[in-house]
Amino acid sequence: MISRPPTYPYPPAIVHPWSYYSCGLRGNGLPVSATLTTAAVGYLWPLRMNEPFVVAKAFWANGATVGTDSIDMGVYQMTDQVTGRVDLIRSTGLVLSAGVSIVQAVSTWRVAANAAAIADARDSTDSTTYTTASVTLKAGRLYLLSFVNTAADAAAISSIAGGPTWTSRATTQYNGTAHRVSLWSGVPTADYTGTIVVTFGATQTAGRWALNEFSGVNTATTDGVVQTATGTGNSTTPLATLAAFGSANNATFGANANTADSTTTPGAGFTELSDLSTSSSPAAFLQTQWRVDNDTTSDGTITSGQWGAIAAELKADASPFVIPPSPAGIAPDIYMSLAISGTTATILNLITDTHFAASAGILRITATGGQLPTTATAANPGATQRSMIMCGFSSRTVLD
User: Fold this and answer.
1) pTM score over 0.90
2) 196, 131 Cβ separation under 8 angstroms
3) What is the DSSP string of 302-326?
4) Could you give the 3-state DSSP secondary structure of residue 142?
5) Phi first, then psi: what are they for 124, rounded to 5°?
């Protein structure tokens, strides 16, 4: 018999993996306090909402051991059913697990970054233009393009073409006039796939660049870049110092360039997004990093040499977190997600096998350091994964 999908008279107060808005499964036995098998996995559970769900809090159930791990919860939309590409809608950012055998709840949403650059490369030829590989940019997201160029008098970028309207945010020469590091921002109004072309008004001897993607940013003004700062010097510590932040929920981004070291160690609390060098003369190196919270000093550590640095404050989106409904008649395209930064803390969960998890529509993604990436490719959870975790979202603020 064919019938229409079920409807429910009242919107749910809570959605979680066991609810009929998600997997709706009843496992054998009870959830147990156990560690997850790896810190590099994010778990995705399908959501089938009949109407938009306004999130008041994200929650999870801590087990008997807290440890020093952090948890990140969010919601993804699958934008390509063929490849399994999922794009992050909103997330909590890494939150320190606190409290033994309790439900922990979070009501703030943070900026998220991809764990690696969307594009990073180098070109050691003399030219007035440098072109990236083809990239796919999503509408409404913030993209930061960090660029280092060299010449006897390293020129400022005159224009950038391809994708969104690009705006210069900061630039500085270092090593006298031989090197320059610049930061540009762009927010596409429509999805874009293609190359990005960086143009100078004079011939440069080389260029290297990193393109980083961020979601959960309030891009209404200045693309979500609240402030920037630059720094130059000759030492082991490239840094740029920002003024006080406008909100505790805003994130910090840094681009560190230098002449001496192909491997920049990120500053304390920062996650490295890219680190690349070139064999051109003069040598030049570029590293980008970020952290989910405030840090007025974006810094790193290198072998002593000339350096130039740029820091930026990114404005977190403070609008309501809304989980959209899934369109009727297609496979689920909305997923709640959770990742944990380590393997010492325990969380209440059920161990499921491959067939059980796959039939429920549970997926997994790579989550470096427990951080949910802005974009990922979802896959089958694999054999014997602890996939049914006690977590979810509440539409009420009374959940404590």
Assistant:
1) yes
2) yes
3) -SSEEEEEEEEEEPBP-S-EEEPPP
4) strand
5) -100, 25
Residue 27 reports pLDDT greater than 60: no
400 C-beta neighbours (distance < 10 Å), count: 10
Instruction: List, in order, residues 6 or more apart from 40 with CB less than 8 Å away.
Output: 366, 367, 368
Residue 79 phi, psi (nearest 5): -95, -5
Q: Is the pLDDT of residue 399 over 50?
A: no
Rg (CA), the chain: 22
pLDDT at 163 over 90: yes
pLDDT attached to residue 280: 64
* C-alpha to C-alpha distance for 240 and 312, rounded to whole angstroms: 9
Task: Round to whole Å and give the CA distance between 143 and 185.
Answer: 6
pLDDT at 28: 59
**pLDDT, tens digit, 9 for 90 and up, residues 116-155:** 899 999 898 999 999 999 999 999 999 999 999 999 999 9
Q: Is the preceding peptide bond at 282 cis, omega within 30 degrees of 0?
A: yes
**Domains within the chain, CATH numbers bracketed:** 14-109+320-394 (2.60.120), 113-314 (no CATH)
How far apart are the C-alpha atoms of 283 and 304, rounded to whole Å? 14
Ranges of beta strands (E only) in 81-216 are 85-91, 95-96, 103-106, 112-113, 119-123, 127-131, 135-137, 142-150, 157-161, 167-174, 179-186, 192-194, 197-204, 206-215
Sequence letter at residue 158: S
Closest C-alpha among 294, 308, 349, 296 to residue 147: 308
Length of the chain (residues): 400
Cβ neighbours for 222, distance < 8 A, ≥ 6 positions apart: 167, 185
Residue 229 has pLDDT above 80, yes or no: yes
Q: Are 254 and 270 in contact (CB under 8 A)?
A: yes
Whether 187 has a pLDDT exceeding 80, the answer reads yes
